[in-house]
What does this fold into?
Amino acid sequence: MELLVDIHKKLDSYPLEVTFNLQKKVLGILGSSGSGKSMTLRCIAGLETPKKGKIVLNGRVLFDSAQRINLPIRERRVGFLFQNYALFPHLTVAQNITYGLTKLPTDEIQQRLATQLQELRISGLENRYPHQLSGGQQQRVALARALAIKPEVLLLDEPFSALDTYLRHQLQEQLIETLSTYSGVTLFVTHNLEEAYEVCQQLLVMSEGQVIANDDKQNIFDHPNTYTVAQLTGCKNFSPATVVSANQVKALDWDCTLKVMQPLPQSPAYIGIRAHHLSFTSDPNAENTFPCWLVRTRETPHRMTLYLRLHSSLNNNHDYHLQAEVFKEKWLNIKDKPFPWYVRLDTVKLFLMPE
It folds into this structure.
């Protein structure tokens, strides 16, 4: 299974220029609002028409501006799960799921319906209408409808954004299970970094209509290639940097010299480290270790974000150098220790980025 996309389309504020080649994987598409993520899916589905370019699915040309090919939606074999589910309110669950199967024999339609009801765990709901379903049930029905046509590509546009945390987690697990046996290509648009990491093998990062990164998810998170990619994938700690030696850089905003393992770019503009990669040590002489003082904290149910100032203490709670994220068990172990604490910036976890 292979999807080749090379499209250009004029949007209101910038051009959309997207190129990628995906082979039987789940591709997560990340980017800020308005970056062109959903528009890319709509072009693949045939809901929007690019100005130029081509879209090829398993050797079938869905769109080619040069050859004037633009297959209608019904011929593309694309399953699309919208953010708001887009179920037909006047149709039952069974009628929604089988909506795109009208040309098949009745026996085949009933077989596909039974398969989807069982696999998505919605048996017993087939005679209900969408308004009689919970949000999670509606989402499962919408996914069943998308899969019932046996699509060659499955497009998921923020499918969990309207659900509460508990339902979202349940349906993430359902989706992972479903995709494990799905033989086609999947594109999954999301704002949720943890969701993207859990569901997808590969990530494509977009900014203002452009693809700025496309790689294995581990490489994207461990070695973001630009400042913008690091920001969009959740990094909170950056500093302008200058080269000191072959394996050392000066982090200007943090006022410290750091040993790095990553090969130095010709002129690294920034150095970064993710908040959960900072660690605390009792050894002040450890590599890349600096005295720090706690400026303020922010609390979530499971973690603490610690805002740290290096080298000296100040009373201004907006003047900090780094953010560290720790689980609450770790926080309980360190919160009453006298200052200074010692924070370590692991050489393996630091990454360098060009301008």
Summary: The chain is about 25% helix and 35% strand.
